[in-house]
Design goal:
Rossmann fold, 434 Repressor (Amino-terminal Domain), homodimer, four-stranded parallel beta sheet, 13 helices, six-stranded parallel beta sheet, 12 strands, 332 residues, alpha/beta, 16% strand, DNA-binding
Chain lengths: 332, 332
DNA sequence: ATGAAAGCGCTAACAC
DNA sequence: GTGTTAGCGCTTTCAT
């Protein structure tokens, strides 16, 4: 059986081959409108025979109804975002939407440029992380008329849709937990907070509750660059060198916390006897370490799922707080 | 200043506002063809004033030259694929290409369906993992006329372009290293190999060299489902319960190996004195553990970068072997 | 240097 | 139930 390996087959050719009109082919293919069973069979046979693949570029242009969903995310190194994409793409695929993405490296200016590039594809929705966008981004997004979903945070004013959880509350709850456990001299190890504003909100919440509880933060070590296990390890080493008598350390996320945990293992520092460790994210790996990591588990995959669901159902503007779960673990 | 918040501005409206023809606006915007500086200024002013965002759907249809690149990847949970995407998206963004993706869950049938859906967007290229595709996928891809890039493996017959490294060689080299270190009674802990065929190739290469070296694989534990730290831990526990006298264990990847490592830490099994551990991938976390993980580092980000580069430069069909690097570490 | 006009491949009225 | 036709918003000859 020969296939056309060259020029692409068009709907018009299928129509000719099936001996029907173009719109009939279109109806059959989209299973929309009415047509007889016999016609459908003739069309499908022609489609099969010619190896026809519909052109959604043309279809989208003609219908002015896009099924592209644009993700403008800060990073792909931090597992948080692949998790969100994973949740979203499952829902989108089921609904015949297509995911498009680009990566901002936590740079709001780059976010603006990439959002602009995305809008040129006339997506049904633009999915972003958090609320901190440039004025230009906001203006552009608003003017575009497409749905906007701000993910992974609910502490702010949503442009349209928002799905996630409160980072401030996560920080406060972490602090409350450590206070309740009796820790009084606490430190913080984090990564670049000016870029990762959600980590900044957690830190602010953490400090706030600590201060209220009468045990203000004793010391902090903030490393330049992205979060990583190595940076967590290095950060804890530096922090302890400066302030050796800390009894607990809060990390900007689980990657960082694991680094701290490894540092303690390597140095023989008893956990949590001498030093408690608390993270954020609830990564699976934290459950398999010799001592399960004390942390807060965030619904990352669910955030993506719900975000996608809201878009495909064209839900009214709203903020969905998915909450989070504190995992006691064994390191605090 | 008022902006049009409603109907989208078209190129024709910009042309009117600037008092020039549509084609002139098009030339200016794409900086292609000739036009006077004065005309350019007039056009740009109109673009600015109206808040015009070009419609790439229409542009792509008109030019029949797509700048979409489609990724059909097995998973987003396994950090390998986000890494590849990260490398690729950086290069694509620089070249004004747009990345589109969908996730197959390691299912070739789903891969076929998703590839078909992708082709409907008329991408410039389709990027896949490995060589194992259904007949239908291959036929469809070939007929599409777009570039095809098979990533993360070079052991097979490339459809068009291929970028990666040899999984078979990685398995063999791992075995050779362990043999050279003097281990003679080795086991394997892996995840579902029928789905992750690249892991299967590593395992096959590993066994081959072990047999040749006169120390055939002593035992294996293969877990259903995806790789994970928890599965690695569980797998090693089971393996040792059955065959306690192993002196080294090869894992299907670093996630699994870390699970094994944690198991040993928890049980107080001396590493590598009593048991050596060897992984695959060279994840950053493996360098921050109390003992650096012995593993093979793979160029995942580079794979994405090179794959994208080949596509944007429209390189001739070829296979690019990026190689890998054995990391001695301290666990073997 | 610039404009007019003919598509790109499809969808969506609107007739029949 | 089915065909005809007019766009969707651009790019691209081809004149001028």
């Amino acid at each position: 059986m020969e296939l056309k390996h060259q020029a692409t087959v068009t709907l018009a050719e299928v129509a000719d081959a099936a001996g029907v009109g173009e719109s009939t082919v279109s109806r059959v293919l989209r299973n929309h409108g009415s047509f007889s069973g016999k016609t459908r069979d003739r069309v499908m046979a022609a489609v099969e025979r010619l190896g026809y693949v519909p052109n959604r570029i043309a279809g989208t242009l003609a219908s002015t109804a896009s099924r592209l969903v644009a993700f403008v995310i800060p990073s792909l190194s931090n597992i948080v975002f692949p998790d969100v994409l994973r949740g979203a793409s499952a829902v989108l695929e089921e609904n015949r939407y297509q995911a498009v993405f680009s990566v901002t490296d936590y740079d709001p200016t780059k976010e603006e440029a990439l959002a602009a590039a995305m809008l040129a594809w006339r997506p049904a929705a633009v999915m972003l992380a958090g609320y901190e966008h440039t004025e230009g981004t906001v203006k552009m997004l608003r003017a575009s008329g497409c749905r906007i979903v701000e993910m992974l945070d609910v502490d702010g004013d949503a442009l349209d849709l928002a799905v996630g959880f409160s980072n401030g509350a996560a920080g406060r709850e972490s602090a409350a937990f450590l206070l309740k456990r009796g820790y009084r001299r606490m430190g913080y190890v984090g990564h670049d907070l000016t870029r990762d504003t959600r980590a900044g909100k957690r830190f602010a919440g953490f400090c706030e509750t600590l201060a209220t509880g009468g045990a203000p933060l004793a010391d902090r070590e903030i490393l330049a660059g992205a979060s990583s296990v190595e940076n967590g390890r290095l950060g804890l080493e530096r922090l302890l060198a400066r302030t050796p008598d800390l009894d607990a350390v809060y990390f900007s996320n689980d990657d960082m916390a694991l680094g701290g945990y490894f540092h303690c293992l390597a140095r023989g520092i008893p956990i949590p006897g001498q030093l408690a460790i608390f993270g954020y994210n609830g990564l699976d790996i934290g459950r398999a370490t010799p001592q399960p990591l004390s942390t807060i588990r965030t619904p990352r995959v669910a955030t993506g799922q719900v975000a996608a669901q809201l878009v495909v159902t064209n839900a009214p503007p709203q903020v969905v707080d998915l909450g989070f779960e504190l995992i006691e673990g064994a390191t605090a």
